[in-house]
Amino acid sequence: MSKFNPYKLSVEYMDGVTATGPVIPRRHTLTHSDLTGNLFLTIGTHYAWNKINPNRDEVLGEWNLSGNSFSYHVYLYIDQGEYTAGESSKRNEIFKCELPLALTAIRYGDRFLFDAYPNLDQAPIIVNFMSTYPQIARREVWGTFQNFSESKLY
What we know:
Layout: E1 9-13, E2 27-32, E3 39-44, E4 59-66, E5 69-77, H1 85-109, H2 111-116, E6 124-130, E7 138-144
Parallel strand pairs: 1-3, 5-6
Antiparallel strand pairs: 2-3, 2-4, 4-5, 6-7
């Protein structure tokens, strides 16, 4: 896993979203540059589809509310049948390896929201690995954002 560097993260708000609201709907689109290692976080009421590249290696996430409980859902596009099982397996391993970095970037990039709503740090993170291969397609719980907070960076 790469080490998170806050100086390599750019944050952009869209759709009238601010640093502290709203929580629902609030969606994150995290993309990166393979050349520079820079991360780009777009926060809005919709995903930033215009920022997504053909490799589909972005991390998409959104807050959900069920009753009084928040949860954060992540969507990772492993494949839609255009890759072989071996290629999809390799993409899956890369996503698993880099996901802690991505979650740390999302937590850090949206830290003002977490400051305004500290209970979000205890919300479960549910990761959806989307694949046409049943051995790869799954849903996992990846803890909570308190595991990926800036206090864990140093």
